[in-house]
Structures are given as structure tokens and as C-alpha cells.
């Protein structure tokens, strides 16, 4: 793997271990195994993608491979040990997890992005580090190489790993995500951790029926045989559209990267959009056959502008789907993860996760979770009413321009023009009033509220996800007298900034194809680099899109610092084999930088690192 000195993996230390039966693991306990340390945080959609990519590797190499999740939080709420334990269950994490609340391990392993993977060989040396997602193929090849090498040396020990599953809880719902009110008065809930839809009686508690077996999968068919994978958003179609389409309800089948249609009369499930592959392509504004296009973690749905709009959390965009024409395409956003308003094709979002349409149908409200923002679409333009950026969050009420949220996942437009917000990581319901342009707190002490439903009688039901239930807000909570004003904590994610020099700086994205792969230029340039800055004034030159992975930037010395947004991708294919498979590796970075005289004039980022660490 090269001639540079091998690096001994730093010891694993943290606040607590999960999924080990109470055992505290040391690297010496893992000697003889191949270890992947997955540095993740549970708010991050890219981290959730990596969990899904690792599952088949854990299954295939179960007797030689141990994955250790190192949870290095971004948001304040993610430092809560109970919230982490809930997330480990919610997302089906079936490997040991080390709680790293102060990012000590993150720093020792020199992680710079969520997610980062460090591969440790059976002798305890770091042999590879890679940032971002899309590494399953490369990891499989690397694991095969390490197996061959260490079996020959006698340093590979086969056998069971240290994972100990927690007890299976018994509740009707398990981490419900979204809900809709049916004509019958019943409620339909996406029961995400149980991979199914639960229909509840109007009391919000009594189970009427379940659509889906409850096991993770992607099988179409009758209610008792169909399967989903962590479904989230639900959208009822208008009656005429439903009649033509042949189904009444659209489901965002999030981890399957699909949309599913459900006929409510009998619970029949059919796939209506997506291939099941995760989107790793280039932005276009074309209409596509819905079953031929790749999606990426669709999280919520709304009927707006005579189509289904999709909160495509995985690539920081909104998409559209037409159930009659059976077509789909991009609606808003560029895939850059940041906050910028403007024409829909130029707007930036960050993991949009909640949608709601105003009573008059004119405005689409968007919960943009990673920027802790409430955005809206109206007249082909995106605007922001609350939120300041990727790294600013808290629980602060008052004038909307100064208010702070913490990773909201849901919104609910009210008839008076205001909007309720499921302020998930603050455990609160908030209200934005456009008349006064102020934010207030309606309810607190909730367990990760993720959606809100307004009944015809004016009641508000909260999907209290981490409490595994629906909760009714107290009568009068929505009145001016019922709301309160919180001047709570203000937080800013403090990742250590990278010092860069004023003037010319060379940005180098270092890409090493996985073993057995080569760059693929069959369909044009194999690489693509998109650079922007927040604030934009940080870069005098160098912003924009190009095909080279090296870029000359000119940094304005009068700007103290900011965030460089970098998106890089590289197309590869298998080398020297018949029927070669093609792969696309892609990574987004938000790099905090500080402009310092005499600092480095080169900024290296690793798209895929399979060299010696």
C-alpha cells in the first residue's frame, strides 16, 4: 500500500459505548479484525447513507470485519446521550458505537468532514481514510486485500465481533416520522423504524391496520406482504389524480430511494418513482421517466403546483413527480449544501426535510433542517423567514431575523397564514407569524417532534418521534396568549477553521481510484469540481464549476473568514474486465476557513483516500 511509515491507530476513548452490552472496548480487543471507524453524526444525511452502504459489508464479512461508529456531534442536541441511544435504534445501527461528544476521536483521527471512514488493519494500523459516501465498492476490494495479506501472515482472527443487540422495545409505533389525516378521520403514520405505515383511529393510539410487514425491504404487493425501508413523508393525492394514477397516497420510501404508491382501499403497494439506486449524477432540468431516474433519500412530500413536490434531503434539493404523466425531475436547488435564496434553479438548501402548503395554495413552506431554517417557495423564487446558515442554531424567539431553531424536520401551514414548526432538536413546537414577522414557542419538552397535523376541528397533533407517539397540543396553545417567548441558548458549531492565506490559494482535491478501478471518460470528463463561498465576498476568483480537480482561488484579505463550499465528483469504471461496472464518487465539504497572513497557500481535500494514512 505504499512506502510511507505506517500509522498506529489512536486508542478509542469516549463518554460511553453503545451496543456492546455495557463493555468498554479497546483496540487490543479488536486485534486480528479489520476495523472500519465510521465518524458520523445522526443529523447528517450523508452519514445515514454510509450506514446503509456498510450494512451489506457487515453481513458479507461478519467474521473478520468490525464496524465501530464514532459519534461526533454537530448540533447541541446530538451531545445528549439519550438522544444518541435513540438514534442508534432509529437508524438500525447494528454495530458498536462510541460516544465522542467533544470530538476528541474526530480530532485524533484527523477527520474533516461528516462522514469520514478510517480503516484499521488486524495489526492496529490505519491503512486508509476516506471522506463522504459511495465507498462500498472500494471498501470491499480493500477488505479482500487485507484478508489475503493477513491470512498469509497469520494475523487475521475469524469469529464473532463485539456487537450486542439491545432489547427489542414493545410499542405500537417506533420512531414515527410523518402523518396525514385520512377522510375517515383516522391517521396514517409512517412508522419509520418498523418499516411500515400504521393507520390509527382518531384517538391517535388505537392501531387499525398496518401496511407493510415491518421488515426492511422493497417488495411491492398486498399490505401484508409489501416492505419499506425507513419510510418518511406521506402525501394524499387529489381525488381525480388518484383515480387516474390508481393509488391514493404517495410514500417517500427514504432509505430505498423510492416513491411508493398505496391504494388505501386494500393497502396495495406499488413502486412509482426511482430505481432504488442512490442519485450520483449531474444537475439537469429535464423531465425523466419516473421509474428510470435515481432518487436520494426523499424525506417529505406535498401536493403543490399540480404535482407532488419532494424534499430530496440526500442532495439538498426539491424535486417534482407527476403521477399522471409518470415523470419526475428537479424542482429547486443546485445540490450545494448551504443557504442562499433566489430563483429556484439557483437556490441552495441543506437537507430539506419538511413541506407544507399554505391554505390558499400559493406558498410552499420548507423545513431546511441542516441550516435550521424555514424557507418558502412562491412565484418560482425561494426565500427564507428564519435561519442564518449551516453553523448557527439555538432556541431564540422574537424578530424572525434574529430567531434561532435547531434542526427542524416539520412544518404545518395554518389557515391564518402563520406556520407551525416541528423544532426537532429543541424538542419544541414553534410558530412563525408573518403579520408580526416574529417567532414564538408554542410547546416545549417534546421528544424530537418531526411533523405536525392540523385537524378540521383545529386541533394540532404532533408526531413525537423519539417518544414513539402522537401528542395533542393543549387547546389554546396556538393563540397569542398561549405562546411564549424564549430567549434561550445561541449555539454555533465550532469546527476548527483551516487557516488560508490572502491572495492566491491552490485548492487540490486528491482522488485515488479504488483498487481495480480507473477514471472513466466514456461520457465526457471524468471529474467535476464546484466551488462557492459564504460570504461570496470571500472569493475574488475561483468560484464556479469546472472539470479539473485543482483550482486557483483568490482569497480576499479584507474578509476575516467564512465557509468554502466544495463539491467534487469522479467517475470510474472497473479496469481490465469484461462488462465493467461504472461508479461515481461524490463528496460535499463545508470547510470553515480563517484568512491569516502567512498561512498555507494550498488547501488539500481528499475525495477518496486509499493510500497509506
Automatic annotation (TrEMBL):
NHL repeats lie at residues 405-435. It holds the Pfam family NHL. Coiled coil: none annotated. Keywords: Repeat. It comes from the Bacteria. Residues 1-148 form the Thioredoxin domain. Gene3D superfamilies: Glutaredoxin, TolB, C-terminal domain. PANTHER family: NHL REPEAT-CONTAINING PROTEIN 2. This is NHL domain-containing thioredoxin family protein. The lineage of its organism: Bacteria, Bacillati, Actinomycetota, Actinomycetes, Micromonosporales.
